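(Deposited chain)
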Amino acid sequence: MRLAAMVKKLIIGPNNGVSPKMNTTPARLPADMRQVGNGFFVAGQIAPQHVAALAEAGYTTIICNRPDNEGPGQPPADTIKAEADRHGIAFHYVPVVHAGITRENVDAMQKALSEAEGLVFAYCRSGARSTHLYAFSRP
């Protein structure tokens, strides 16, 4: 064994300083996430584990624009909200059905945006409804 490898093993340990019991899978931001406004980002459907990554990245608000039970395997908004609450992130449920964006949707989105303090993340199935609703909700 080379001297450098021996020193590393002595100082860091056999597992590069990582406990074998530790979860080493980092929380990841949604792969399709994109910025559509100043401090406003959208993506398609997220999973509860994405909330931890959003919190780590500094997001303070999550807005769900997808109605519950729209597709198979979709986590309910309440599940995402519970995870957001656990991480200290504000959560707003502003579902937009496929029939289109309503005045009530725009009003609710404007209210959510006015209460936001920091980075905002909104999601639906693909991010399109969130993007359009954001555009309609700007002053």
User: Anything to note?
Assistant: The helical segments are 3-11, 48-56, 77-86, 103-115, 128-137.
